[in-house]
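Invent a record, attention on tokens:
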Amino acid sequence: MKTSVEPSAPRLAPLRVPAFRRFALANLVSTTGSAMAPVALAYAVIGQGGGAGSLGVVLATNSVPTIVFTLVGGVLADRLSRSRILFLGNLLAATAQGVLAALVATHHATTASIAACGFGSGIAVAFTAPAAAGVVAQVVAAEHRQQANALLRLPANAVKVLGPVVSGVIVAIGGPAWALSWDALSFLAAALLLLGLRLSAPVTTSSALADLRAGWSGFRSRTWLWTYTASGTVVVAAWLAGFQLLGPVVAAGHYSGARSWGLVQGAFAFGLLAGTAVCLRWRPYRLLAVAVLTGAGLCLPLAALGLGLDLPWVLLAAVLAGIGLDITIVAWNTALQLHVPQEELGRMSSFNGVGERIAIPLGYLATALAAHAWADRTVLLVCAGAVVVATVLNLCVRDVYRVNRV
């Protein structure tokens, strides 16, 4: 694969920008809590008597508001100060996770109350994700954006290596409320950091509805963008339904529960960290083709769990999937920032985000229902197959090979 080597783009150049440093620090702080949340959430549901069905409802409820409100978040990200949106979104997430931690700690948590808190967190994501997508393009020069995207993920991924492992131990010893409490505090700290970011708002003269229509027109006109999004609809739904929903259930039934699942999550995070290190050194020319191909690695842990392999093989598969996913994310973000004008990034990111998330609730619910009819491991193998098929079909699109480094 053709590689670009640019001496003028040193790997640490983005850290010379004060606004980027603050944004990166806030991202790192919130990640210290978010890395613990999946294990804690899964076992909060299991601890109050829920199984795959209850966890599927909780995860689906978390996804619905993200899908519903992300387009609004994308329009606002191209009209208002992105730093202000990020501050308010992190504050909302801190509130939702704080309430959830209190419910779990006092043994008042139910599937409905956990789902309600997840709904609040989902709204926060709907507004913060499009705003965050445009920050790098707003504060970092074009030639340094791949490094910026990788540097954002490097410390965060380092935290994710230990976060799930620590969370698994905390949940096993003291219960999930402690890990959920830290998640809430980390969002609050990130919000305070983002309050000082103070990014200027874009200058707009059109209405919000006109902006939304123009954004949809721009999204449809870019074949590479909507086909990648369509592929992501299948890949993301299959991955999350298999890994986040059935993964903890299979770990509880066939491995050692929270401890083993924490190790799997930690192995996946270690792979993400390794993938970031690759992105700091490797500058692929065919950005989008690399993003599509490396994303297929997500099928590996699904297949390993589905085949009932021993835990060391599952951990290896999780590491490889993490490496591939992080390369995918950095390559995709760089391609988007280089091939979409900065004033459209919020809307293009939101259309992509909605497209990739729109099937998640259905995937969770369908997987939960399928788990009642078939063995959990059989459903995991179906999810792995869906990832492979969607990737192959996307690689058949010619425009994938035309979105390259500029």
